[in-house]
């Protein structure tokens, strides 16, 4: 399978679905489902992040993915631990012959019946989000077309995650600014302040209490009580 003809249409649908997704978890699930559907050699897929040295599978198509990634953590070796910007796609074509991760490869093949694995870094120029893991059952392996499709999928996911986080951050910033504005209004009414004086009051409370200005504003709006700054 290639990304031409039918592939282009499938990726267009995937992009639309990612834009419409409710949150990042849904975007990850869409990508994992698409990997199993679009990558011909893929039987299982998941998305893994490295959190303080621990591999965490955020989304998996099934228990095979969860266990395969758990074994990487338990044994201290595996593709998801090594994939990085200097090697964004790492392929283990035959786990029975894999020498880079001998203990992991033997366990995954014996316990889960997996024959081949591909790990792809999901990243943009500014951020790395995690690792898309694709597994093929014994007797199967990933060919060059599979790699092209998988890398295209990883790129779509990276763009979707970056855009989704930017939208979320913008929404949070807007909510904070609206809350601060409401708190300023309360201060202006209660203390007969100007808008500038009200904002300076909030900054002083934030500085004196070592708490975020938006948190102070939210408390004022919620409780209608004014903090004491001495």
TrEMBL record:
**Which InterPro entries would you find in this protein's record?**
ANTAR, CheY-like_superfamily, GAF, GAF-like_dom_sf, GAF_ANTAR, WH-like_DNA-bd_sf
The entry's keywords: Kinase, Transcription, Transcription regulation, Transferase
Q: Which GO molecular function, any one, fits this protein according to its record? A: kinase activity
**What PROSITE patterns does the database record attribute to this sequence?**
ANTAR
The residues covered by the ANTAR domain are 160-221
* UniProt xrefs under Pfam families: ANTAR, GAF_2
| Coiled-coil segments | none
> Per its record, how is this protein called by name?
ANTAR domain-containing protein
Q: Which organism is it from?
A: Nocardioides oleivorans
């Amino acid at each position: 399978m290639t990304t031409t003809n039918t592939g282009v249409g499938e990726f267009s649908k995937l992009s639309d679905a990612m834009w419409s997704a409710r949150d990042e978890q849904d975007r990850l699930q869409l990508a994992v489902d698409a990997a199993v559907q679009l990558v011909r050699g893929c039987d299982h897929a998941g998305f893994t992040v490295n959190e303080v040295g621990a591999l965490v599978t955020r989304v998996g198509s099934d228990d095979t993915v969860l266990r395969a990634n758990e074994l990487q953590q338990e044994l201290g070796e595996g593709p998801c631990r090594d994939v990085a910007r200097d090697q964004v796609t790492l392929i283990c074509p035959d786990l029975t012959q894999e020498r880079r991760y001998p203990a992991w490869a033997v366990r995954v093949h014996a316990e889960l019946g997996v024959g081949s694995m591909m790990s792809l870094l999901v990243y943009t120029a500014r951020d790395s989000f995690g690792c898309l893991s694709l597994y093929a059952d014994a007797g199967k392996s990933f060919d060059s077309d599979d790699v092209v499709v998988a890398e295209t999928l990883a790129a779509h996911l990276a763009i979707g995650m970056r855009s989704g986080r930017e939208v979320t951050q913008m929404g949070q910033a807007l909510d904070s600014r609206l809350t601060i504005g409401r708190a300023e209004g309360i201060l202006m009414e209660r203390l007969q302040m100007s808008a500038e004086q009200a904002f300076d009051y909030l900054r002083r409370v934030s500085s004196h209490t070592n708490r975020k200005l938006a948190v102070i504003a939210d408390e004022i709006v919620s409780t209608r009580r004014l903090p004491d700054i001495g």
